[in-house]
Specification:
Cell envelope integrity protein CreD, transmembrane helix, eight-stranded mixed sheet, nine-stranded mixed sheet, membrane, Immunoglobulin-like, transmembrane, about 425 residues, Uncharacterised_IM_CreD, 17 strands, alpha+beta
Amino acid sequence: MKLNPTFAKLAILAVVTVLLGIVLGQIGGLVRERQARQNEAAQSVEQSLAGPQTVLGPVLVRHCKETWMNGRGDSETRDFTLTAAPARLDVTGGLKPETRYRGLFKVNTYAGQLKLTARWADTNALTPRGLRPGSQVDCGEASAMVSVSDARGLRSADLQRDGQSLAVKPGTTHAAYASGLHAPLPGLRPETALSITLDLELVGTQRFGLVPAAGSTTMALQSSWQHPSFGGRFLPVDRQVGVSGFAGRWQVTELASNAAAQVAAGDKNVDTLDVELIDPVNPYVMSDRAIKYGLMFVALTFVTVGLTELLTGRRVHPVQYLLVGLAISLFFLLLLSLSEHMDFLKAYLVAAAAAAAVLTQYAAAMLGGWLRGLAFGGGIALLYGALYVLLRQEQTALVIGAVLLFAVLAVIMTLTRKLDWYRLGASAEA
């Protein structure tokens, strides 16, 4: 039984489509490999400079030991730490972006200039109380501690108590928040008010956070970075984002956050106020999203060429379908390679223009005329324009893609509504 040539060609085109799917899969794997190397570059910078920073403090700490006699007449002891969070914490400052590179890969870092002002109405929370009847409690002197996620990022720190500078020492002396600095507070009276000010220069990678461990916390930050991502447990109450950068103001009270209680319990999963310096257009994320539409591009192009065959009688060889599909597939590889050296929009325009130009001149010979070639190239250009819209409009990508596919199907049905498919198959067989 002789196979219908139309169905034989469709089978061949199905095989071609599968092969192109494998090519797109390989390009997608390359994108993921480059993205993994980007993450490795970020980790390398963090290991050499400092990682994301979260600041906790100033908080007062005092280490105590309780001793008592048990029922057998033996002496037992327990060590414990008293903490006193401030009644009010005010943080102001700015984050200066500093871009670091590992080869081709860019990592966003920052240098922060911060001023932290903490006030206590009294420090009665540092007064020791024994848990056992008749026990003896001995405590060391109180100290003010400030914890940071990565102490390597500490450039300078000026800690003052009621306007007088304190001797800053490394480490916090707190077991749960060991990384940071502290300063002894000799002669601290529980009933008196206390004010501590810290001028801090801190560097970090990508993200900065603050633990609102106070009765009332306010933070005002500004930066020249134009693309912040506000996160953590609380968003800023006011924020401005523009071409000159961003400014944000946070305000949190102990009614909304139990960060002070979490710190007293030594909990490391505390509430934070966060801001992250992100790249709005990550070339690897955008390339990966673009490749997901690759097979749809190939299918739409094959349908266009097939319609041209049906409507004009011009025969196109399966090898020509394969070459057209490869040109479309290699667009994504060209986009990936160019986006590592230039802005993503410029890379996209160059790659799309190159692919459209090659397909236009090839389609002119394949379809029998420059007019048809230009029409084909224009359709490819429109597809690339639609793809860019889909990439940028992430929230509405689904509805835009659905409308475009429905519009393409409507055009195909309109153009082929008068075709006699049975006669077409019979004539092809003859």
